[in-house]
Amino acid sequence: MKLRLLPLLPVLLFPLSALASNCTLSDPTLTVQSYIVNTRQERIVMYWKKADGTAWASLLNLLAGNNADGRIQMAMNGGIYAKSYAPLGLYIEKGKQLVPLNHASGGGNFFIRPGGVFYVKGERAGIVNLDTFKTSQGIDYAVQSGPLMIENGTINRRLLPSASSRKIRNAVGITTRGEAVFMLSGRGTSFYDFACYARSKLDVRQMLYLDGTISAMYQKGADMPWQSHPFVTMIAVETRHPD
Asked: Distance (Å, rounded) from C-alpha 164 to C-alpha 98?
């Protein structure tokens, strides 16, 4: 799959304010915890199950089993999961596809169109529309979720400013500079406000919703966040170590 992450010419020609001029936060005091990945020093990885086949299930367990050398800089829950505690859509870990792509229709956030896939291929990360995702060949890590909140700088038209549902939400984005950024709302927020904040304040051009209500983020040096429910997949940013 050809990676298309860096539309640099538009960024050079148009000020960033032009990209954000047509969205307005209904909650101007909204805060979002964010973590931008430094690909020169860090890598993005995903976790689901331990070697014995049981799930890691919590950020606390994940750090206890993988962070003896302090490599984990950030960790958060991944995409939406099924009642069977398995990823609801595509999931790839260490180059191996463990769950296939899900093109089904249904209710709930996962099925709001368009859906998307967040993937890691070598040192590069990207978000692609579910309808244009072609192959998992060569991908190291991937998780499918939905909805795709921002695509090519445009907020999903299904995310209405008037929507009343406000929940804790987490997401992953790609900035106009091609950086991966992980986000967690500081309090309950609407889809639209979350997307508007990401675009106007974090320069996010592609944004994929991961989950809500149960979501939590750990950042190195901060306290371990309280976790109300078990997680299935988790995404971590780790310091690179020489092989």
From this structure: 36
What share of the chain has pLDDT > 90, as a percent? Answer: 86
Cα–Cα distances in angstroms (integers) from residue 227 to residues 57, 61, 218, in the given order: 10, 11, 11
User: CA 6, 7, 12, 18: dihedral to nearest 10 degrees?
Assistant: -110
Residue-wise pLDDT tens digits, 118-145: 999 999 999 999 999 988 899 999 999 9
Tokens 């309808």 correspond to: 131
CB 32 within 8 A of CB 186: yes
DSSP string, the chain: -------HHHHHHS-HHHHHTT---SSTT--EEEEE--TTTEEEEEE-B-TTS-B--SHHHHHHHH-TTS-EEEEEE-S-B-TTSSBSS-EEETTEEEE-------SSGGGSSS-EEEEEETTEEEEEEGGG----TT-SEEEEES-EEEETTEE-TTS-TT----B-EEEEEEETTS-EEEEEESS-B-HHHHHHHHHHHH-EEEEEEEEESS--EEETTSPPPP-SS--SSEEEEEE----
Predicted TM-score (pTM) of the model is 0.90
Among 241, 217, 2, 238, which residue's Cα sits nearest to residue 119? 2
- CA–CA dist 230, 210 (Å, integer): 15
